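The records we work with from here on pair a chain with its fold. A complete example follows; check for yourself that the lines match position by position.
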Amino acid sequence: MGRVTTERLVLRVTVGESPKRQPDTLAGEEPLELRVGGRSLAVTMRTPGADFDLAAGFLVSEGVITRTEELVAMRYCAGADDDGFNRYNVLDLTLAGGVAPPDESVARAFFTTSSCGLCGKASIDAVRTRSAFEIRDDPLRVVPALLVSLPNRLRTAQKVFEKTGGLHAAALFDGETGDLLVLREDVGRHNAVDKVVGWALREGRLPLRGTILLVSGRASFELVQKAVMAGIPMLCAVSAPSSLAVDLAQESGMTLVGFLRDPSMVVYSGEERLLAAGSPLETATP
C-alpha cells in the first residue's frame, strides 16, 4: 500500500540566516485506477488510504449505486511496479446482479474534468433527475453557534494535515448533536468527499439525512453534486462557493454555507434551516 505521507530532504532558506538542509513531510499522492467487473472506469490522483471508501463514494456520486448491497466486492488487483512492489493502485469493483454498470459517459467525464466540467441549467437538471434522495424536506435545523464551532473541530482532527499542510479534508457531523461522524483527508477535495460518502454507504447510512458536510476549501458544483447524491441537506465550506454550486444548492433545497469561520458565515441557500433561540433567523433587508 502506498504511504499517506513521505519524507523528502529540502533546503529551508530564511533571509538573514544560513540555509538549512532538513527533512520535510509531504502528503502522499499516487494514481488509483478503478475498474468495474475488470473494465477500466476511472483514474484519479489520490492520497493512499480509505481507497474502498473512495471507490464506493465515487459510484454513489455518479448515480451507479445507492445501497450497500449493490456493491458486493472490492479487491486490489495483483501486479507490481518496476521495482517489483505491488503499490495497490488498481482496484476492481463487483456490482450486484441486476445493477447496471456505469456507462462510458461516466469514464469520459472523470478523465476530462479536474473539478467540475459540467455547466449550466442542463447539468443542474441532470443531477436533480439522477439523485435517488430528496433533501428539500429534510427536517435538519441548527443554530449558528454550532456551525461556527465546526471548522476548528475539523482542523483539530486533521492528523495528516498537521504533518504536511497539504491535504483537503471533508467531515460529516450529526446535525442534532454536533458529533463528528467521520473525517477523511486527501490531496483532492472531491476525493475527500467521496471517501466520506463511501464510508456512509458501507455503513448502511445512506441517505445522510440530518447531517452536515464540512469541507476545508471552497464549495464547487462538484461537491454540491456529491452531497445531493448522498442525501446530505447541508454543505458548509470555509471558503467561497462557485455560482453554479449556489444554483444547484437552491434548485435541490440544500443549505449552502460559505466562509464559515468563527464567529461568522455567509448563507447562500436554505437559510430556513438556521435557527436563533429555536426560531428561524430574522434578517434585515439592506
Q: What stands out?
A: The domain at 144-280 is CATH 3.40.140.10 (Cytidine Deaminase; domain 2). The first strand starts at residue 5 and ends at 12. Helices lie at 51-61, 104-112, 120-130, 144-157, 159-164, 189-202, 221-229, 243-252.
